[in-house]
Amino acid sequence: MKRLLLVSVAFVAMLPMTALARGRVGVFVGPGFAPFGWYGYGYGWYGPYGMYPPFGVPNAGEVKLDTNIKDAEVFINGSYAGTVGKLKTMTMRAGKYNLEIRAPGRTPFQQQIYVVAGKTMKLRPELRIQPPVAPSGS
User: Averaging pLDDT over each range in 16-20, 23-27, 37-41, 52-56, which range is the top one?
Assistant: First the structure.
């Protein structure tokens, strides 16, 4: 019985080595090596946030729209995205976009924006009232 238990323990101890030989790497989930709490968000062996960053590494940025016309339509790269009232803050991948905001009876707002990962861009589009077009008579 002792011999079976010893062989079982040796087999279980060698399982991680077989995974490592196949190129698989495991992830240790446990306490961080820092003085702040169980998972430690201080400086430790694994960088400035203990074992992992608190919310992962950001790969997207935010665009925040600040205008009083909530029913204005938002177009991103020519495609309809929604209204300003529903899209107060948009999370977008990092990159270059053509942003257009249209409202009936107002001048459209057009701007090329560059979204930076982890940053928030605040836009205050001015949608001025269009002057009435004078009829051209002969």
Answer: 16-20
**pLDDT at res. 130:** 85
Residues 127 and 101 sit within 8 Å (Cβ to Cβ): yes
Closest CA to 63 of 97, 94, 92: 92
| Residue at 92 is within a domain | yes
Tell me which of 48 and 109 has the higher pLDDT.
109
Instruction: Say if 94 falls within a structural domain.
Output: yes
Residue 112 inside a domain? The answer is yes
- The β-bridge relationship of strands 120-123 and 60-65 is parallel
Q: Which residue has the tokens 């490592």?
A: 20
pLDDT at 91 over 70: yes
